[in-house]
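Repro case for the chain-ordering regression, as requested:
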Amino acid sequence: MTTCVKVAAVGDVHLDKDVLGRFRPALEHLGDKADVLLLAGDLTRHGTADEAHCVATEFGGLAVPVVAVLGNHDYQSDDQETVAKVLTGAGIIVLEQSSTVIDVGGVRLGVAGAKGFGGGFAGRCGSEFGEPEMKEFIRHTRRISEGLGHALRSTDCDVLVALTHYAPVAETLLGEPPEIYPFLGSYLLAEAIDSAPTALAVHGHAHAGAERGTTPGGVKVRNVAHPVIKQA
Amino acid sequence: MKVDTHTESQLQRLLAEDDRVAELGIRVIRLDEGCLSLSGEVESTKRRDMIRQVVAEEFPDVQVRCDIGITRVHEPDDVEEL
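-- result from build under test --
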């Protein structure tokens, strides 16, 4: 049995009324080209219910299952639960330290997802030390990464994909100023990804980054932020 | 108006924190001739126009060059096999 699964993915689409319908022409033939669409966070501009309805309109009712994680923009109005609820109402599967299994012609595709967070990469990262704010910053990343790792390891499937908003490796940040890497991702996410038989890791967030990278454990990483892939 | 690193920082903060803009991916570069350049991509011309407007409101005396593009949305024509 072949285990070929066609994955379409994009992040950082930042939908609002002004761009509603913009992605629709490219999504028309999605069913011929892909088995699933992954949305890698920052689906809205300010994380409002109105903007979430725009996402639901744009990416709801497609020919393939749609799986999403939220990004930092989707948290801006402190109303991320409403955003997730609106997307879920449109049939979009929203993951946060959780997973889903989709049957693709007999192949069980598992997607485990989490927003992720920052902190930086080996030798140039923060740790849970010092002021409460600093400890909380890194603790947030650690907890999300642990949750992602657990979701990945406990998903029973044939092909396993990790979906985050923040980056698990520095390679896909090339092009961004190195000084802001700690705000773009964390090595803790890569540790989680490498703790499971992950076949592919997809993320967004780094608009000026690079498309391709690999985790220390050899998992292929793809930055699908819309300004990086420059296509729908 | 003298354009220095403080101006750069203030402009970067404005682009992120002004609700009308909310863009974290726009790069601000100080050019030799004393003006600031904005580069990066946004999803619509309306958003680019808003950036121009907000920056002009907040920094009326600073010469700003806007090199912001609009991200394309054509269908992908290639498939990567992993």
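Ordering looks correct now. DSSP finds seven helices and twelve strands in chain A.
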